[in-house]
Amino acid sequence: MGIVIGSLEQGLIYGFLALGVYLAFRILNFPDLTVDGSFPMGAAISALFITKGLDPFISLVFAGIAGGFAGLLTGLLHTKGKINGLLAGILSMTALYSINLKIMGTSNLSLFRHETIFTPLANLSSFSYTIFLFLLVFLAKKVLDWFLRTDLGLAVRATGDNSAMIRSLGVSTNQTIILGLVISNALVGLAGGIMAQYQGYADVQMGIGMIVVGLASVIIGEVIFGTISIERVTLAVIGGAIVYRLVIAIALYLPFISPTDMKLITAMIVIIALTIPKFSLRKIKKNESTQKSFSNTVMPQIKEVKREG
Amino acid sequence: MLRIEDISKTFNPDTINEKKAIRGINLHLYKGDFVTVIGSNGAGKSTLMNLIAGGHPVDAGTISIDGNDVTKLSENERATFIGRVFQDPMAGTAPTMSIEENLSMAYQRGKKRGFRLALNRQLREFFQSSLEVLELNLENRLQSKVGLLSGGERQALSLLMATFTNPKLLLLDEHTAALDPKRAELITRLTEKIVKQNHLTTLMITHNMDQALRLGNRLLMMHQGEIVLELSEIEKAKMKSRDLIEAFARLKGEDFVDDRVALG
After folding, report:
1. Distance from CA of A300 to the nearest CA of B (A)
2. Between vectors from CA B256 to CA B255 and to CA B262, what angle results, nearest 5°?
3. The domain containing residue A152 runs over which residues?
4. Nearest Cα residue in chain B from A143
5. What is the pTM of this model?
6. Is residue A188 part of a domain?
7. Does the beta carbon of B234 lie under 8 angstroms from any beta carbon of chain A?
8. CATH number, domain containing residue A43
9. Does ipTM exceed 0.90?
């Protein structure tokens, strides 16, 4: 039971991360690796401000803002600096490692005996954290859903879907890419901040592999819960984060697996989630065949029309 | 409406691949003009269109639309004035988004986009009545993903998205070339209808000689980055596609054989 509740709680925290990764990878179609830096950055900022005596909730606002700045950096490197998206993320992530150390002043900042957002809930029922975290992440999901239905949100979605088209409608895709990355990493920073308060410390190493965790959540969620609409997917990725934590918890429970195997297990979960649908779902095969038939039927016509005029 | 003064464009200058795509073109379009542009492959038609739309910067010369100098503006800044339909039916719409969302984005052409919900009942009703013009029953499929539509339907939707905000200038880049003959005919008919209804100033590239003669009130023929022939409405009315090919042959005798194939 303790394992299940723990997984639920951590899964809900990773839900913020999953929402952010979903926005960058799926909506913007941007392979953003900044996450490995913006997650611990949110944690560092939140922990630092709490140790300085700031309200833990307000420290989370700053964690989100800090994450947003990390996204801004990657966005600027990519759009203004014309650096490849993957590389821009890697550069930000690398730079952030040192910046995070500077923020904390040490590699590990403990919140022992400091008040966190969880302190008032500590002695209530054993589900109090879960309910509280669920409400928080559900609120974030709702806000993201709403944003993606506004004029600006539509422009961000179209940037990942058909950027030439949305440019021809007067949108600067540089701005929408930057905006998307800022929101994405703000959510990731928030996840980092909440995680630091949850586990009681911020660690400079805690970002390593976060991008894979986020991706795993998104992919697992999409496979299990479906992708019918935006609202469904934003819920699905949170579900995916919970399932991911559960699988990890169960795996660690097994006698022949040690905690050091965790990254290997994570990678394997992602690989399985990515490859299984290719074998099982007919739908995907159908899509492929329609694409093929399109190129077979339409493309020769283009050539013919050109020839015959 | 559109004023092009002595523009030129060279790709890969000072290299072995140097290509003078546009050589000093002057072109004035008056309000309500519907100009068709023909020419062999590599004549510079698409480059001309890209220069007007802002896809490439010009090397020299100026472009102004309705009195606004747009030469220095980026593609997305010029979009306020320009509606555009591409050859590829996939290019003008966002496939994972619904018909109504695509229309909503087009409706906001050139406007500032903020945190207002992109759809409401009033807009939906307006989109439905706009879609009725296409006679494709799309008005009853507002929530369908655009990726599920056929090439012809997508191109019709692209045409509507490019025109229903009444842009100052409509650019059509061989927008019927990738469709089967029946769909191409439908899009041609819709183009005629929509342009007439909204009195749009239009520049259309085509490879189809009959289409070039049938549509519009002026015709331009391009060759090697220059406008080599210009026909007014009266001259155009007297022409058949055979005459057009012969006129082309006289102007550029040396390439006749190649171009008969291309224009033919």
Report:
1. 9
2. 90
3. 2-253
4. B115
5. 0.87
6. yes
7. no
8. 1.10.3470
9. no
